[in-house]
């Protein structure tokens, strides 16, 4: 994944949408898939805001085993139904290698490896064998080198379509969910030729922090953003505090172009 292999940087295509070129791509959508109506409204909101890809979790890595764990396969079905109407490629998290064939059967466009699985080496090896772009989120306390090595596990299997996603790291600070490591953006852009995106939602953990963090990420050179939105944030089954409404997402999207232009 070293920049030495492609000094000019590389672009990953997701159904014709470029990630890593000079456009900022924003992937919007709910933390978790809840109902068909919620997904239909989310897809409409994401598309109206100008996002070209959609996120949503069917398999959720929750701290408590008693918390909602995601709808599973039934959720993938709802996600595809909603996203297809707006022609939005779908991004969803794979937690278990045993679900990989199902992800392929449901034609998941981008497979997300979550922070908690960044060093699940068997999972990384398996997604290294498929021909789908992979979003590799940074582990909660992973160093840049550990993150790069995790990406090497995927690349070593032949899949070079890897997108790094900085989502905040754990520090001594408790005033927000995680600390967005803005420094990681220029460092990764220098170390690898692959696209780097930022998830300001899981970094801050509060909706009101998301615009500032998203804007900082774009100013620091991020190729895109992964942002949680919900048609009715207060009612979200998971991560309600950090979800933007579709209007808030629309307003944020309007500010990003000028920032990207300026850098
Ligand atoms: C997510 O994006 O749905 C998620 C669980 O994030 P992370 O793995 O970064 O905690
Ligand atoms: Mn979430």
From TrEMBL:
EC numbers on record: 2.5.1.54
Biological process per Gene Ontology, one example term: aromatic amino acid family biosynthetic process
Keyword Chloroplast: no
GO terms assigned for molecular function: 3-deoxy-7-phosphoheptulonate synthase activity; aldehyde-lyase activity
Keywords: Transferase
Domain DAHP synthetase I/KDSA residue range list: 20-256
Keyword presence, Transferase: yes
The protein's name in its UniProt record: 3-deoxy-7-phosphoheptulonate synthase
Organism: Chitinibacter fontanus
Portion of the full-length sequence here: 72 to 334 of 338
């Amino acid at each position: 994944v070293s920049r030495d292999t492609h000094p000019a940087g590389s672009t990953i295509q997701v159904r014709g949408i470029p990630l890593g070129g000079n456009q900022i791509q924003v992937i919007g959508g709910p933390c978790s898939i809840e109902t068909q109506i919620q997904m239909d409204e989310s897809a409409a909101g994401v598309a109206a805001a100008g996002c070209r890809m959609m996120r949503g979790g069917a398999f959720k890595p929750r701290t408590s085993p008693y918390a909602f764990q995601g709808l599973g396969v039934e959720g993938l079905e709802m996600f595809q139904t909603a996203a297809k109407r707006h022609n939005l490629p779908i991004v969803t998290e794979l937690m278990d290698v045993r679900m990989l064939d199902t992800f392929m059967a449901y034609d998941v466009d981008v497979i997300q490896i979550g922070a908690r699985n960044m060093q699940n080496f068997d999972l990384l090896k398996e997604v290294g064998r498929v021909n789908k772009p992979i979003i590799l989120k940074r582990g909660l306390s992973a160093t840049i080198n550990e993150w790069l090595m995790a990406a090497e596990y995927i690349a070593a299997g032949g899949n070079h379509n890897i997108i790094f996603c900085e989502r905040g790291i754990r520090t001594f600070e408790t005033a927000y969910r995680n600390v967005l490591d803005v420094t990681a953006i220029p460092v990764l852009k220098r170390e690898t030729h692959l696209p780097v995106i930022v998830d300001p939602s899981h970094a801050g953990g509060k909706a009101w922090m998301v615009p500032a963090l998203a804007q900082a990420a774009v100013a620091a050179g991020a190729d895109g953003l992964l942002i949680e939105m919900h048609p009715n944030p207060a009612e979200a089954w998971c991560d309600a505090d950090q979800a933007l409404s579709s209007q808030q997402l629309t307003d944020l999207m309007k500010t990003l172009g000028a920032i990207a232009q300026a850098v």
